[in-house]
């Protein structure tokens, strides 16, 4: 009788050991790709990073250092400690310039925000015309210097077409840029005219993110346009509006060119905004240390205002689910 051998059946490899090197190679390949992507990203970021270091970070650090020195470009900087800051606190022109700047910011931000919000809502609710959006943005394409010169000619007391129209209506000519009462509001409205279209388009982009279903549901419930604006539009637009306010406030505190080409700080320092006073101290009187101290003070003020705005407006949160 023959007994068949019962050798165990041969087992084919399950692939675990064979696949291990493959997985290792795959992981190594992905790591190599990641490193390549990292190098490419660093290459693209390098110009912006270099510009940030050379034109923003280094001047900021240099300015902070100079604020503790006496420096006039002709002699080496002399360390004076807090003397420039003590002088700034006791300088009535500095406080007057700061107050003039705050007055300008309040008028500019108040009028510009309301006007831009109204334009953005009208663009969203009444028309989708790209041509109309382009027309709204047109003043922003003009530089501040050109806008200031154009309005300087229009509002000239003797020859300006604006005052010619006012005179033709039987009203006395108004010295818009030559009177202490009118000068700052006029400059603020000139900059509102130039920037309101850009601000409106930023808010319009925020409005586009609000679902139309909410408005349709509100109409079904009988809500009016005014009620939908306050109950739907404003709460959902809040994060975008907060960021726009932060940007416009920072930009408004740095007003300079419009003042420089229209009033040069006059009349009687009525438009001597802080940036113009800093410029005059540095490049007019060569007091670079004192000008740097005022610049650092402006930086601290803007940082505090930005943090306060961010927290009060809850810019980092949205009511959209």
Verbal overview:
The structure is a single chain. The chain has 321 residues and is mainly α. The protein is 71% helix and 1% strand. The chain contains twelve helices and two strands, in the order H-E-E-H-H-H-H-H-H-H-H-H-H-H. It has helices at residues 16-66, 83-89, 92-126, 130-137, 144-154, 161-168, 183-208, 212-220, 225-253, 257-262, 274-284, 288-313, and strands spanning 69-70, 78-79. It has a two-stranded antiparallel sheet with strand order 1-2. Strand 1 and strand 2 (78-79) form a beta hairpin. Helix 1 crosses helix 12 (288-313) and helix 4 (130-137) packs antiparallel against helix 7. The radius of gyration is 31 Å and the shape is globular. Mean pLDDT is 86; it is low at 1-27.
What is the structure about, briefly put?
The protein is mainly alpha-helical. The chain is built from 12 helices and 2 strands; from the N terminus they run αββααααααααααα.
